[in-house]
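Workshop exercise sheet. Pairs work together: one partner reads the sequence aloud, the other fills in the structure field after running the prediction. Swap roles for the next sheet.
Pair: D.N. / O.F.
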Amino acid sequence: MPDCTNLECGPDLNNCPGENCGTCDAGYTCNNGTCELGGAIPGDLCPNGDSDCPVEFPTCLGSGDLTYCSKACTGPADISCGAGNCCLDLSGGDFFCWDPSYCPGDSGPGDPCPFTGDVNDDADQCEAGLDCLGIAASDTNGTCPGGADSECTDISESWNPSCVTGNCGASFCAAECVAGACEAGFVPQDIPDLGCRCVPESDSECTDPVNNVGCDANQTCAPAGGASLVCIDAGSVPLMDDCTDNPCVEGHVCMALGTVDRCYKLCDADANTGCPGTGDWYCGGWIDVDRWGFCVPNDLCTMGGTECTNIDDGLGCIIWSDACDEFRCLFTSGDAEGVACSYSNSCLDGLFCAGTPGVCTDVC
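Structure field:
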């Protein structure tokens, strides 16, 4: 009778005793009772946990809508994940099997890489030790109705612009900073959940929107997506005035956060600096824009009062302090009572985001 340990899979194969003859050798996968070279790829969804996963990759990673069937492995040299798959550190020394879309490739620092599944989706994965960073495709970063990457002129070429169904995004491989510094051609950038990474220098038209450095007279240096900055025409409309028909003064940008287009001063969202020296202001950031933001009113208010509505539509009185003893005006997403929420300023004025997961709730 053959020794079935680590050789075969499935019930009672080749006269093996018992109901299970073991697992396949490293590099092989169990397929309908037969050990085959390579074979299955990890990554099946498992919303119900481990029970949804195949025997080859029995461990469900993640939760909610982000789930992934895998199995533990010992390190990059471990070939038990199967041909084409790889063994990578999930976090803190916990290694698991990943499909080829996660495995290291040949793209070096600054090279394009697949990001969010569609940006530069034909590029190779980053080399081991590099992270694939970028900005998701959105009309905020420019449009490309002709479908060509070259139409994405609002994004620096050094970020490898990518046209995705008419909208522009970008991606690049980034190395970790060394003592807070980077090689020539790259600048240090603090990335949430990752830390300092070396980002390709952009070929922006200007360098500093807060102090309006790099543009001609009667122009303003403004964010254009990612780390790119461009020069736009300036006008005569001052802070918080209606700019529907005329551009703002230098150092300001025209935006419709409420129901009216108003001029907001540009600021440094990372450092929360650059806002007017008088009154209460908050430097809010843009989605898909690195570092730079715009100053919004942040006056003290009373829940249920009228202080915020006197400033502009779209503002709500939001809990500001951890002790719930200070309230300030912030722009809200306008979610109604009972609607699921994620942020403190998701709800309409007079409501707050309570619980986990959050729900817009009336204040009492």
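Discussion prompt: The chain has no helices and 22 strands. What would you look at next?
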